[in-house]
Amino acid sequence: MAYHSQFSNTKFRLGNMAVLPIRTRFKGPAPSETSIENEDIIDEALKYFRANIFFRNYDIKNDADRTLIYLTLYITECLRRLQKCQSRIQAQKELSALAISTFPTPGDSDFPLNGMFTKPSHNEMDRMKEYLQQLRQECSERILDRVIDSTTDKPSK
Questions:
Q1: Any coiled-coil ranges, and where (predicted)?
Q2: DSSP 61
Q3: S-S: 15 plus which of 86, 101, 120, 140, CB 3.0-4.6 Å?
Q4: pLDDT tens across 58-112, in order?
Q5: Gap between the Cα atoms of 33 and 108, Å rounded
């Protein structure tokens, strides 16, 4: 059984994706989560990544699940890029560049999961791109802390 997001009651959406509060230092449209005790959607995506990545089918229960799916897709790409990195500095540069790069968004012809997402309206498109970039930037920072061994400064297996 796949893990679903606990953030089922959200009132903000872009397309059919939930806009959820996150703890971040990066600028963007996401509401700010100030409590370090509360888990945000990025914590949830990192926590459930290993379990959810093995599911071929995923029954979407709410809009927050789509945000979780997007982050799972992004984490997969981050891990693929980190395979060739030999130090934290190299990894940080690689993930920073990835986070701000032109990453496909729902509705783009090259977005791999368009069947699960609704293309945002013309008015929502710029805001969605900003939100997704903010998610990618914060997610990249947190992945580094989990993947890079602080004693050796090298990626851990």
A1: none
A2: -
A3: 120
A4: 888 999 999 999 999 999 999 999 999 999 999 999 999 999 998 889 989 999 9
A5: 29
